[in-house]
Design a protein that fits this description.
This protein has 463 residues and is α/β, with parallel strands linked by helices. The protein folds into three domains: 6-117 and 398-452, Rossmann fold, CATH 3.40.50; 125-168, no CATH class; 173-390, NAD(P)-binding Rossmann-like Domain (Rossmann fold). 32% of the residues lie in helices and 12% in strands. It has helices at residues 27-34, 51-58, 75-83, 101-106, 125-128, 139-143, 146-153, 175-189, 192-200, 229-242, 255-270, 284-290, 310-315, 333-342, 399-417, 449-452, and strands at 6-9, 15-19, 37-42, 64-67, 88-91, 110-112, 221-225, 245-249, 278-280, 293-296, 321-324, 347-350, 388-390. The strands form two sheets. It has a seven-stranded parallel sheet with strand order 9-8-7-10-11-12-13, with helices on both faces. A six-stranded mixed sheet has the order 1-3-2-4-5-6. α4 links the parallel β5 and β6 (110-112). α1 (27-34) runs parallel beside α15 and α10 (229-242) packs parallel to α11. Bound molecules: nicotinamide-adenine-dinucleotide (NAD) and (2R)-2,3-dihydroxypropanoic acid (DGY). (2R)-2,3-dihydroxypropanoic acid binds next to loops. InterPro entries: D-isomer_2-hydroxyacid_DH (IPR050223), D-isomer_2_OHA_DH_cat_dom (IPR006139), D-isomer_DH_CS1 (IPR029752), D-isomer_DH_NAD-bd (IPR006140), NAD(P)-bd_dom_sf (IPR036291). It is an enzyme of class 1 (oxidoreductase). Its EC number is 1.1.1.29.
């Protein structure tokens, strides 16, 4: 096993915590140091660490690890962590398809993730007109049905796509990822990258009526598959920004999204403009047939693996735009390359890429196990196609989000090591990111808390 160089913080700390990568900001290191941890950050230049590399980092004594979505966190690593005395792990990602949670359960190791949400800091001016006369209720809440707020807060709702408290819309969603999906949508629809290449190649010799003609978004239909936190945020951006109509498919109803579009449609109507509309589709196929733009935001599991395949691509409009900022294997990339070749007016924007090797599907698990070596590879031909915009998995790459993810991952591990309970709502994690006041004494987001029987913290903002 290779021995790697590590940077050590708080050498005398009582718990040994390893981070497999340096992460942005300092708040996360401080959080671990404050919790009495000795922090060892792997400084290897190797981008993706193998299981053997990580075994070497865990060594014979390790209390907790912060890992990355590129790593295979399965039986081998969890049993090694357990053997080394560890009981806390956190992915620095909201998606955890690279983690075999059942293996972690078996070894009693808590698995954290980082659903970073950002407070909506402004009320859109259009919402002001909906504030009931004499009421102090926030205008946004006034336009959203109370039932939607209740649903979002409900314990029984397994998929809470917004974070609210009883009187304020607490800001929602994973805006950073949704913004990149919107950027990919625009880049693909308006051929921004092709046009940029053309300029840089010195090919522009004057305006022409047919030069890089693309698609207008306004008034078109945007389709969302997976209308959770990110899917709903993206939908709102496309509705408010481009007056697009929404069709969505999710296993669950998104009342919040529906009410938002209805309210915005009413506002447009009151201004004499054409209202936007929404529709909940009964299948992914319905979305694919009807939408001009389709953006994929589901989790990756057995139900979404190769959700977009040859057959479903053929159902889409010939000039549609397809965006994927979820996980690569949601699309059969070989089928996509063929489709792009045959349909030059069909465009894609991709932040994530499919596995180079075949996936390991475990029959008895609801999750895919070991989806890690999917990037940096692209399927043959994809990189040469002008109708594909490709970026290297940067959807969450804003400073605020990446620093927040690092802090949440650290607090998941630090909280577990200190014996703290888990936070009552993993969608409301902003109190953990406030640099000016101490973080709540809880683990922000532990995905296997229930199975491990971990105690849940009371729903107060500071403890
Ligand atoms: N590209 C990036 O950098 C990046 C960043 C963040 C998240 N992600 C990916 O995006 C995913 C979604 O993140 P989120 O925070 O919005 O999660 P979320 O849990 O809030 O939303 C996922 C939604 O997918 C829905 N879903 C599950 N199975 C489905 C199916 N078969 N068909 C349709 N919908 C289905 C769920 O009901 C849920 O509403 C993550 O799991 C992660 O893989 C990628
Ligand atoms: O799942 C996540 O959080 C992302 O893919 C990281 O950007």
């Amino acid at each position: 096993m290779a021995a790697y160089s590590v940077q050590v913080f708080n050498a005398g700390g009582k718990f040994r915590v390893v981070s497999t990568k340096p992460m942005p900001g300092n708040q996360w290191i401080q959080a671990l140091v404050n919790a009495g941890c000795r922090v060892e950050v792997c400084t290897s230049q190797k981008t993706i660490l193998s299981v053997e590399d990580i075994l070497s980092l865990i060594g014979s004594r390790c209390d907790g690890v912060i890992g990355q979505l590129t790593e295979e966190w399965g039986e081998t690593l969890f049993s090694a962590l357990k053997k080394a005395g560890g009981h806390a792990f956190s992915n620095m990602a909201v998606g955890y398809n690279n983690v075999d949670v059942e293996a972690a359960n078996k070894h009693g190791i808590a698995v954290g993730n980082t659903p970073v949400t950002k407070c909506l800091s402004h009320v859109p001016s259009w919402a002001e007109s909906f504030r009931p006369a004499g009421s102090s209720i926030s205008p946004l809440n006034a336009v959203l049905h109370k039932s939607a707020l209740k649903e979002a807060e409900s314990e029984t709702s397994q998929r809470i796509e917004m974070t609210v408290d009883s009187c304020n819309l607490r800001g929602v969603l994973t805006e950073t990822t949704a913004e990149l999906a919107a950027a990919l949508t625009l880049s693909a629809a308006r051929r921004v990258v092709e046009a940029d290449d053309f300029m840089r190649a010195g090919k522009y010799d004057g305006w022409l009526p047919n030069l890089f003609v693309g698609n207008l978004l306004k008034g078109q239909t945007v389709g969302i598959i997976g209308a959770g936190r990110i899917g709903s945020a993206y939908a709102r951006m496309m509705v408010e920004g481009f007056k697009m109509n929404v069709i969505y498919y999710d296993l669950y109803q998104s009342k919040f999204l529906e009410n938002f579009v209805t309210a915005y449609g009413n506002f447009l109507k009151s201004q004499g403009e054409t209202p936007v509309t929404w529709k909940r589709a009964s299948s992914a196929e319905e979305v694919l047939r009807e939408a001009d733009v389709v953006s994929l935001h589901p989790v990756l599991d057995k139900t979404t693996y190769h959700l977009i395949n040859k057959e479903r691509l053929s159902m889409m409009k010939k000039e549609a735009v397809l965006v994927n900022a979820s996980r690569g294997p949601v699309i059969d990339e070989v089928a996509l390359v063929e489709h792009l070749k045959v349909n030059p007016m069909f465009r894609v924007g991709l932040d994530v890429f499919e596995a180079w090797e075949s996936q390991c599907l475990r029959a008895d698990s609801p999750t895919l196990v070991m989806i890690t070596q999917d990037e940096p590879y692209m399927k043959p031909g994809l990189g040469e196609l002008p109708n594909a915009v490709v970026v290297p998995h940067i959807a969450s790459a804003s400073k605020w989000t990446r620093e927040g993810m690092a802090t949440l991952a650290a607090l998941n591990v630090a909280g577990k090591l200190q014996g703290f309970p888990v936070w009552h709502n993993s969608n409301m994690v902003l109190p953990f990111l406030d640099e000016n006041s101490p973080a709540p004494k809880a683990c922000p987001s532990i995905v296997n808390a229930k199975v491990l029987g971990l105690q849940v913290a009371a729903p107060v903002s500071k403890m």
